[in-house]
Every structure is written in C-alpha cells, then in structure tokens.
UniProtKB/TrEMBL annotation:
<keyword id="KW-0677">Repeat</keyword>
<dbReference type="InterPro" id="IPR017938">
    <property type="entry name" value="Riboflavin_synthase-like_b-brl"/>
</dbReference>
<comment type="function">
    <text>Catalyzes the dismutation of two molecules of 6,7-dimethyl-8-ribityllumazine, resulting in the formation of riboflavin and 5-amino-6-(D-ribitylamino)uracil.</text>
</comment>
<keyword id="KW-0808">Transferase</keyword>
<dbReference type="InterPro" id="IPR001783">
    <property type="entry name" value="Lumazine-bd"/>
</dbReference>
<dbReference type="Pfam" id="PF00677">
    <property type="entry name" value="Lum_binding"/>
</dbReference>
<feature type="domain" description="Lumazine-binding">
    <location>
        <begin position="1"/>
        <end position="96"/>
    </location>
</feature>
<dbReference type="InterPro" id="IPR026017">
    <property type="entry name" value="Lumazine-bd_dom"/>
</dbReference>
<protein>
    <recommendedName>
        <fullName>Riboflavin synthase</fullName>
        <ecNumber>2.5.1.9</ecNumber>
    </recommendedName>
</protein>
<feature type="repeat" description="Lumazine-binding">
    <location>
        <begin position="1"/>
        <end position="96"/>
    </location>
</feature>
<comment type="pathway">
    <text>Cofactor biosynthesis; riboflavin biosynthesis; riboflavin from 2-hydroxy-3-oxobutyl phosphate and 5-amino-6-(D-ribitylamino)uracil: step 2/2.</text>
</comment>
<dbReference type="GO" id="GO:0004746">
    <property type="term" value="F:riboflavin synthase activity"/>
</dbReference>
<dbReference type="InterPro" id="IPR023366">
    <property type="entry name" value="ATP_synth_asu-like_sf"/>
</dbReference>
<feature type="repeat" description="Lumazine-binding">
    <location>
        <begin position="97"/>
        <end position="193"/>
    </location>
</feature>
<keyword id="KW-0686">Riboflavin biosynthesis</keyword>
<feature type="domain" description="Lumazine-binding">
    <location>
        <begin position="97"/>
        <end position="193"/>
    </location>
</feature>
Length: 197
C-alpha cells in the first residue's frame, strides 16, 4: 500500500526484454539505503517488487498484465519516473490509500497555466469515470491528487508548483499517457452495489 506522496523522481537506466515482460533498472539518487530484495516500490504508481539492488539503483520486472495496463512498456532509458516506497504501519497517510494496482492509462488532452498552478485534462475509458467524483481522490502516475471535474470520458486536475517541480507531471505534454488508479473505496462500493463491469 502507498499514499501517493512521491518520494523521488527517479530515472530509467536500462530496459531489457524478458519472456513476456520487461526488466527495468531504475536510478534513485539520494536513496539513503539500498532497497531489500522483494520490497515493493511504486514506479509511476505501479507496485513492483525489487529483484536486484545496489546503492541508488534497483531493478524490477514488469509482466504482460502490467505492460498491458500501464505506461511502463513505453518507458526507455533516460525517462523520468515517480518513486514511492510502501507505507509502514504508523506512517502518516498524507495522500490517500493507493494500492499500486493501475486500472488503466489516460491521455493528456489539455494543459494550461492558471497563475502559478496548472490545469490538466485527460481522456480516459468511460468505464473508469463512473468511479470518479469531483473533489474525490485519484492517483495519476502514482501521485495522489484531487479531481476537479469528471466528464463521461475524462477528468481534470490542478497541480500546485511543488507537484510540478518534484514529479513527472510537470513535464507532461498533450498526447502523453499516464497511469490511473481509481479510489479503491469506490471500487468496493461499485461491486457491493452489483455494478461490476
């Protein structure tokens, strides 16, 4: 489980094809201690297990389902990624409950500056907007955010200068794909009400 409060913006160092998947080497500058083998790390909001580790560097594997549902399959050496270690019991939950189980990708449709803030609007499969509400929570590339508006096939967010500076969302351009995870509470309510897709 994660909070959606990105700890660092890392960088993909290498991508290698594996049978049915990919292996990604990630640089995490400033990491205070090597990650443990098997530890969970959210990479652009996708929960992955560490399979190799070194100072300020780790490797993860992404299987077919992960590559199908996320933007990690399109990442290449040099690309920035958002990083967060899993939450520990007793930590503050400053964002919202993020599982690291990406539901789908969304595409940036519009970006405009509003003072020091920026407004971003995304297109997404309408099957996911039923789980979104204005002023509700959403994880976009692993960043816990508040929804501004929700449309039948899209949603919008506002980003403060800090988020623009310390996450990959600051460099998004129209047409770029992001990972989206809907609020897990909404998913459970949908199932309990018998509205499962």
């Amino acid at each position: 489980m994660f909070t959606g409060l990105v700890e660092a913006m890392g960088r993909i160092e290498a991508v290698a094809d594996e049978a049915g998947g990919k292996r990604l080497a990630v640089r995490w500058e400033g990491l205070d201690a090597p990650l443990a083998i098997g530890e969970s790390v959210a990479v652009n909001g996708c929960c992955l297990s560490v399979v190799a580790t070194a100072p300020e560097r780790f490797e993860v594997q992404a299987g077919p389902e992960t590559l199908l549902r996320t933007n990690l399959g399109g990442r290449k050496a040099g690309d920035p990624v958002n990083l967060e270690r899993s939450v520990r019991v007793g930590d503050r939950l400053g964002g919202h409950i993020v599982q690291g189980h990406v539901d789908a990708t969304a595409t940036l449709r519009e970006r405009r500056r509003e003072g020091d803030w920026e407004f971003l609007a995304f297109d997404v499969d309408p099957a996911w907007t039923v789980l979104m509400v204005p002023k509700g929570s959403i994880a976009v590339d692993g960043v816990s955010l508040t929804l501004v508006d929700v449309e039948p096939a899209g949603f919008s967010i506002m980003l403060i200068p800090h988020t623009l500076a310390v996450t990959t969302l600051g460099t998004l351009a129209p047409g770029d794909r992001v990972n989206v995870e809907a609020d897990v509470l909404a998913k459970h309510v949908q199932k309990l009400l018998g509205q499962v897709r």
